[in-house]
Amino acid sequence: MAGSQRYIRYIVFAVVALVLLYFIGSSSTVPSASWPAYHDSTPNTPKPNPPVVAGEKEATPATTPNDKTLPAATIPGERMNATFVTLARNSDVWEIAKSIRQVEDRFNRKFNYDWVFLNDDDFNDEFKRVTTSLVSGTTKYGKIPKEHWSFPEWIDQDKAARVREEMKEKKIIYGDSVSYRHMCRYESGFFFRHPLMLDYEWYWRVEPSVELYCDINYDTFKFMADNKKKYSFTLSLYEYVETIPTLWAATKNFTTHFPQHVVKDNSMKFLSDDGGETYNKCHFWSNFEIGNLNWLRSDAYIDFFTSLDHAGGFFYERWGDAPVHSIAAGLMLAKDEIHFFNDIAYYHVPFTHCPTGEQYRLDHKCSCNPKDNFDWNGYSCTSRFYEMNNMDKPAGYEKEQ
């Protein structure tokens, strides 16, 4: 009997012990391990909610991507009568698409300015679809009149052909190209006269395959107008001597016949080291320009271009639109009407303008390497522009020489 009682007590103790162990385990305050959840990459696969730990609030579900297209964050205020302008062909569509995206992301999504595309042929549907989808403003497409993209009647075709062949043998860049010469002549004297451009007062020239490295948070067109600027640049350099051997002689011929077009306090010191006797070959690189179209349409500029055009140097040599624009601005604009955009970080093969000044680059999310900056290179003319205008060079420029 005593043995049976002991046996029953052992069973009771065992049951009680098991019950206690169960309650101790279930009420433990030791947190469970938190493991990273595995997410199935299969599209639209529902994700199970993570288990809720006892004593904690249910976790807020993760957000899902917004499938709505959000409007661009535009900067309020009046807009100038301005447009971007690009000379391109249908084959340039993907290279100009890159440029447009650069300009839109860094600047135009905030301002929504128009964009004019010009071509010596008709633009195809693909070019129009792609560019229209990228531009926040209105896109316009124009065909260049044949008389603006051809040899004028006074050009000796045989002589021009011989020049091209000679330049080819000398390996002068674009020396044998007919289309490049038409382009330089068109950009020098006609783009601002196209019917689509007549609607505007200001232009920003953009070419295929350029890059902008910093955010631009103000209206550059309004800045130009408010500060009475008419022409601007980001890069300057020396022109190839072989392409413009008689350009300065043609310029001096113009100033002799039209002295009224040469303004006081001009930028001759940027163009010449001897008071205008010779040309030092410095010019503003015109693949980037923000400028005033009414100045280009003025009697002074039209007389200058017409004089050069009849001299024949666009075809008998290989005059570029960059030195043509630069000489015109240097002689026909007061020096304080020309602006250097240090804050617009710009690249066009093979040169880079990266703003001098680390704090500016940080504040404006710049992605350029300051070591690539061309401004203070010996082949740049930007130092000359600073010296002519008695401007202090940006702090830190010595490190970039």
TrEMBL record:
Alphabetized UniProt keyword annotations: Glycosyltransferase, Membrane, Transferase, Transmembrane, Transmembrane helix
Transmembrane segments: 7-25
Gene Ontology, cellular component aspect: Golgi apparatus; membrane
GO BP: any one term: protein N-linked glycosylation
UniProt key word Cell cycle: no
SUPFAM superfamilies in the cross-refs: Nucleotide-diphospho-sugar transferases
InterPro entries documented for this protein: Glyco_trans_15, Nucleotide-diphossugar_trans
Protein name: Glycolipid 2-alpha-mannosyltransferase
Lineage: Eukaryota, Fungi, Dikarya, Ascomycota, Pezizomycotina
